[in-house]
Amino acid sequence: MSSGLAIKDRNSGRANPNRRNLHNFIVHGLKFVFPAKAGAMTRGIPTAFAAPMLKGLLISGGDYIHIWPFAEGRDIGQSVEPLFKSVPEAALKDERLYEYLALVDALRLGNQREAKLAEGRVYERLLKK
After folding, report:
1. Which of 108, 109, 103, 79 is nearest to 91 (CA)?
2. Is 98 exposed, middle or buried (0-12, 13-18, 19+ CB in 10 A)?
3. Which helix (H) or strand (E) holds 122?
């Protein structure tokens, strides 16, 4: 709450997300706090714009797809360290979480065009009701 990412509800006293500040942090700050670089080729689960729910939104110039390393994954691409070790497994269990984490990676890895597209999707998910 001290960072402004959450605010205390006046009635219940519970912490609620401050959607606007959270959006700004995800879009503009996350790549500095959790920088990402594409690594070696590996087997795993697609992330960023290679993730199933984001696939087709961006036409790639033939580059390799980005992958969270995961032994049970079926795709091959350049590895990207997830925010947490449990991300690949958790993403397979929750499609909505998968989309959010893939968008985060699109922001962490993407060039200006990719980041702008991901920013629009994050805006739709967080701020539009």
Report:
1. 103
2. buried
3. helix 112-126
> Whole-prediction pTM value?
0.82
* Closest of 25, 70, 33, 24 to residue 51, by C-alpha: 70
Residue 64 DSSP symbol: P
- Antiparallel, parallel or unpaired: β 66-69 and 41-47: antiparallel
CA dist 124 and 115 (Å) reads 14
Q: Write the pLDDT tens digit of every residue in 62-93.
A: 678 999 999 999 999 999 999 999 999 999 99
DSSP designation for 27: I
CA atoms within 13 A on the CB side of 74: 3
